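ok, trying the design again with the full structure, not the truncated one.
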């Protein structure tokens, strides 16, 4: 029930967020409208994939005698990775726009960061679906290489943006840096749960 209700809440929140970002697009400065458009696309893609994940979960489990039991259909891990393969590069581009990175610098960063995000996710998927702990560890290590590069680069850009600002804006950017680092650490830790816990 917790999983079912969590999916329901998440899908509803994404639908509401999509509507909000579409309606608010013209309420932000012109320089940030592209970022809001990217956010709308990201939320739409995530909404679609969470619906697919929910359907896959519903196909994999059934409610019998007060508890969920696994049916014959396996849960499809591919939907999360398909989602991330599209949304993570877009989120990186959006962050660079919001931080006010100059167009030339942004273009240069995108030529390294976007391929790094694709490489990180592409290397993570084989380990996620592997049954061998050794394979999971191998692909975890390989995917951590671009992961570390991305976090290092983005935290540097956040720090640079914070130094260009003053007062509450600088403080918000500092908080955003901490949130970015903490939330991104969920992925490598969650990835290893099946290895660490039986």
């Amino acid at each position: 029930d917790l999983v079912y209700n969590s999916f329901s809440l998440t899908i509803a929140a994404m639908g509401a967020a999509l509507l909000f970002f579409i309606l608010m697009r013209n309420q932000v400065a012109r320089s940030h409208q592209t970022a809001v458009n990217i956010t709308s696309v990201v939320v739409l893609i995530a909404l679609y994939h969470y619906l697919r994940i929910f359907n896959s979960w519903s196909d994999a489990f059934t409610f019998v005698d007060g508890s969920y039991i696994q049916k014959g259909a396996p849960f499809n891990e591919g939907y999360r990775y398909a989602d991330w393969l599209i949304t993570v590069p877009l989120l990186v581009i959006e962050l660079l726009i919001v931080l006010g990175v100059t167009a030339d610098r942004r273009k240069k960063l995108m030529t390294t960061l976007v391929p790094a995000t694709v490489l990180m996710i592409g290397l993570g998927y084989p380990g996620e679906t592997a049954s061998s702990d050794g394979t999971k560890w191998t692909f975890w290590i390989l995917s951590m290489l671009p992961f570390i590069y991305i976090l290092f680069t983005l935290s540097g850009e956040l720090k640079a943006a914070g130094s260009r600002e003053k007062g509450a804006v600088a403080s918000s950017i500092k908080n955003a840096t901490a949130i970015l680092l903490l939330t991104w650490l969920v992925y490598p830790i969650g990835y290893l749960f099946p290895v660490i816990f039986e």
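Keeping the full-length input from now on. Residues 99 and 160 are 9 Å apart (CA to CA).
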